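Field log, afternoon session.

UNIT: design team B
ACTIVITY: writing a sequence onto a fixed backbone
BACKBONE:
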């Protein structure tokens, strides 16, 4: 299902301006959110992050128009009558719009906003992952590393590399050899009662679920902190997990040849249960539907 110009369109095809800078230059942003029972989980946070990123790139963004797109698509799930059909992944895309040849942005941009919805399997949430440490470096010197931009080629190539090596996801270190993120999510490591996640300065996206987990840590008996870690330091953790809006909290069972008992770790289970409850309340559904 596609939302474009204020209307829902069956399928995902619509006319496209082939001079749109999102297509030709990757000049734009996107957001991925989970919708359950017709409501978007952490809706305000998703909209605020997208608008803030657009402001950084000086792309005009209208929060209420973004909200209308997300809600129109989320409502399609609520009409399916429950089960897997009402669990949707909503991707909202904002580009700078069309422009003349060249890199310089137009002085008066006319942004393109559209959104799509697709079923999101319940089995993907909280499912374990095996990570492959890619040799591709996360460019922590680039402002784009901390934004959800359309330029995802490094992640695409790393995903192909991970799959070829028999792993589910990639793990990125930055240009200084510090652990940054997974290909599609934020990373956390447990060291006793310390919960450590790489800081944004290390080339990390300010993940929506990342923020939720940091907020839940205290109630779960943890001291949450942002800290730079080398890969060997990260591999010394008791447990590791990845967070994103669709997986929510995915225990990591291996990073390369290093195994982790993250799925059996009681603190990981406690955090996952707390996050499940927060997501359920955000969407007004029973916890077993998250």
């Amino acid at each position: 299902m596609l939302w474009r110009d204020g209307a829902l369109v069956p399928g995902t095809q619509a006319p496209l301006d082939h001079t749109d800078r999102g297509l030709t230059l990757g000049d734009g942003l996107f957001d991925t959110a989970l919708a359950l029972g017709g409501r978007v989980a952490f809706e305000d946070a998703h909209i605020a992050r997208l608008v803030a990123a657009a402001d950084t790139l000086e792309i005009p963004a209208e929060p209420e128009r973004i909200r209308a797109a997300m809600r129109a698509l989320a409502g399609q799930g609520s009409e399916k009558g429950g089960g897997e059909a009402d669990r949707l992944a909503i991707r909202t895309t904002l580009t700078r719009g069309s422009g003349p040849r060249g890199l310089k942005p137009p002085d008066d941009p006319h942004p393109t906003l559209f959104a799509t919805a697709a079923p999101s399997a319940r089995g993907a949430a909280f499912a374990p992952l095996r990570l492959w440490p890619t040799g591709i470096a996360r460019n922590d010197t680039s402002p784009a590393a901390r934004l959800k931009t359309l330029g995802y080629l490094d992640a695409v190539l790393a995903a192909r590399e991970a799959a070829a090596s028999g792993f589910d996801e990639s793990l990125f270190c930055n240009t200084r050899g510090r652990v940054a993120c997974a290909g599609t999510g934020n990373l956390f490591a447990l060291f006793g009662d310390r919960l450590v996640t790489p800081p944004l300065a290390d080339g990390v996206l300010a993940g929506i679920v990342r923020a939720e987990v940091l907020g839940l840590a205290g109630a779960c008996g943890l001291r949450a902190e942002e800290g730079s870690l080398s890969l060997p330091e990260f591999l010394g953790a008791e447990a590791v997990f990845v967070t994103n809006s669709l997986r929510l909290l995915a225990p990591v069972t291996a990073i390369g040849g290093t195994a982790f008992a993250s799925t059996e770790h009681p603190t990981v289970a406690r955090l996952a249960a707390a996050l499940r409850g927060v997501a359920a309340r955000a969407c007004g559904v029973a916890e077993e539907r998250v």
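LOG NOTE: The CA atoms of residues 88 and 253 lie 26 Å apart.
NEXT ACTIVITY: expression trials, pending approval
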